[in-house]
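Below is how a single chain appears once it has passed through the pipeline. First comes the sequence as given, then the structure the pipeline wrote out for it. We keep one example in the README because the format questions we get most often are answered faster by looking than by reading.
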Amino acid sequence: MEFFLVQLFNGVSYGLLLFMLSSGLTLVFSLMGVLNFAHASFYMLGAYFAFQISTWTGFWAGLVVAPLLVGALGMLVERVGLRRVHAHGHVAELLFTFGLAYLIEEAVHLIWGRAALPYHVPAALDGPLFQIADSPYPMYRVFMMLISVSMLVAVWLTLTRTRIGLVIQAALTHPDTVQALGHNVPRIFMLVFGGGAALAGLAGVIGGAAFVTDPSMAIAVGPIVFVIVVVGGMGSLAGAFFASLLIGCLQTFSVSLDWTLAGLLTTLGFSMGPDTPLWSVWSIKLSQAAPVLPYLIMVLMLIFRPRGLMGTRDE
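Resulting structure:
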């Protein structure tokens, strides 16, 4: 029970971090129809900006300022580059954001180098908050969960309970009408893209201190984010939330378990041994297969429910 509870808390905290990262991509896609391949690069920039600011003024200033800087950079990218290629279709957008990811990575190499940075958990949050049996649970993990849930509530309230949220949703389906009512639709899209980048930057501030801040962090989480978006349903914020928790818990539990298919079949009464055909496959441990499990879930989802957990069918 102790192992289960600790892994469950770790899985939920990691899943909420993934949701914080994937929510920005989901919002940009649902409101603008843009699949941003550079989204994980904004996550990396959030961690690097927060590290730089924390060396000058401390962690808390970085927590506030770094997402704002990333959001401003996102608005600049949309205004200068993405808006120009938007008229040429999705292929042009994908190529633009794909190249942008490489440019951001090279800029990080030039400014901060290729080595990992000493970006750590702040002293005020470094330590246990409570005990699960004999295992102390870190305060920073709980802080990650609180920030993620607060962000979810804030985004939901903004989109459903405020005038700007209603204007944003209307601009997606009826841009000409919104423009006729006096709203600047291109500026709305610029703010939406900047807001999605800011959410990724916030995830980078939180995740960079909890894990590792280095130039490979975007490549490490980028594919997982797209898996979450597909599994949850393209453009569904609620679907991204449940998919993030599912994949976060799946990866957290699987890396800690040495179960094999051979052991499971032996328990069920089947005779399994080294002479069994494809023994190398049957004897793969769950911890070894953990990195590919999210992609397996995505493939199964595309086969049996292509619109995702909570996506809507596009007639």
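The first strand starts at residue 128 and ends at 132.

See the next section for the split statistics.
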